[in-house]
Amino acid sequence: MTFLAALCVLLPLWRAQPKSISNIEFDKALYKARVNEIEKDASLGRLTPEAAKTAIAEEGRKLISLANPAEAQTSNSAFGSWSVKGAQTYGLILLPLAAIGIYLSLGNPEMPDAGLASRLAVPPEQQLIDDLVARAEAHLSKNPQDVRGWAVLAPVYTRVGRMQDALNAWSSVYRLAPETPEIRATLGESMIAAANGVVTSEAKELFEAELMANNASAKARFYLAMALGQEGKHKEAVDAWQELIKGGSSQSPWMEAAQEFLAQSAKAANIELAPAIAGPSQEQVEAASEMSAEDRNEMISGMVAGLAEKLDAEPKNKQGWQQLIRSYMVLGRNADAEAAIEKAGAIFIDDRPFVESLKSILTTNN
Fold first, then answer.
1. H/E element holding 142?
2. Average pLDDT along the chain
3. Cβ of 231: how many Cβ atoms within 10 Å?
4. Which of 229, 208, 230, 228 is nearest to 219 (CA)?
5. Cα–Cα distance for residue pair 58/327, rounded to 1 Å
6. DSSP SS3 for 365
7. Would the pTM count as exceeding 0.70?
8. Rounded Cα gap, residues 283 and 294, in angstroms
């Protein structure tokens, strides 16, 4: 087919060789054109008869000087004609041969995918992330029941921005191993990423199911609180964010985002939040880990005393009361915890649910 196509293009060009004009014939034609132009100017009065005769004579002299027999050969020489025909002939032969050679080396449909295979043969630590993904995809296409493979590939999809592929991978994990820890919350989180940050009804159902199986799931609580804000239930969202925050610490990876969402929900609900009471810094935690047990308890006792003093100045800080009672329980100071609950009960006399939540901290830790 390539040969026939080349033949259709080149054969007409090879056959159609225009007749060449010799140099002297060209000069004669030019002489006649100039003479005609001079005679026309004379007839129009642009030249006098004498000037016209002089100009015609001059053109004649030029023609005689150009009439050299050595230059009368054609402009298209035998060598030039052979060159054109030869190039066309070689093109007609070589182009199909080159196409056949390239096809046999690269275009054989029965050849394996050597490019990808050679890349996947490189040790994993030397591969690019796209090659690693290709390796994992090739493995999973042959082993679709490999739960661990899907669980490893899903975060990689998220990292490279392939959210829908990540969702499909987590769905496979959930389908094959629904007992995987926090798989419902993880799958719901992937649904939110694929939906550009919207907590869909399907994702919400997964988070609620996760909480039924694991009431301590911070991830499920985080996105359920987010869902309340997106639904316009800002007061309920404030309560949900505060409940989540009080169960975390300054080192929790979601703490900063949760506090920001809490502030947004409180503003939307026109609720004034009490200023947060800061816990120990990272430097204080590291310093405490290097202390003896006695010095560590002394340090913690000093921090708890400072927290109690701040609550005297800001008695309406619910989060501070919860933190104080938990701190007393860690130190084994149950009597001080009971006294703090009684004091908070007098301050929040109209908020019995909050007071009961403080009492539950005491009973849970006993």
1. helix 129-142
2. 79
3. 12
4. 208
5. 121
6. helix
7. no
8. 19
d(CA 248, CA 234): 21
| Residue position matching structure tokens 């820890």 | 181
* Residue 193: alpha-carbon gap to chain centroid: 13
On the question of pLDDT at 253 being above 80, the answer is: yes
DSSP result, 72-109: -SBSS-HHHHHHHHHHHHHHHHHHHHHHHHHHHHH--T
Specify the DSSP class assigned to residue 274. Answer: P
- pLDDT tens, residue by residue, 149-169: 999 999 999 999 999 999 999
Residue 262: CB partners within 8 Å, gap ≥ 6?
238, 241, 242, 245, 273
Comparing 74 with 249, the larger pLDDT belongs to: 249
More confidently predicted of 253 and 93: 253
Alpha-carbon dihedral sign for residues 89, 94, 99, 100: positive
Please, what are the domains in the chain? Answer: 2-106 (no CATH), 125-180 (1.25.40), 188-273 (1.25.40.10), 288-365 (1.25.40)
How far apart are the C-alpha atoms of 341 and 345, rounded to whole Å? 6
DSSP conformation class of 127? S
Asked if residue 101 has pLDDT above 80, the reply is: no
CA–CA separation, 95 and 104 (whole Å): 14
Q: Is the pLDDT of residue 129 over 60?
A: yes
Nearest C-alpha neighbor of 271 from the set 237, 246, 221? 237
Instruction: Give the span between the Cα atoms of 184 and 209, in whole angstroms.
Output: 7
Mean pLDDT of 238-249: 87
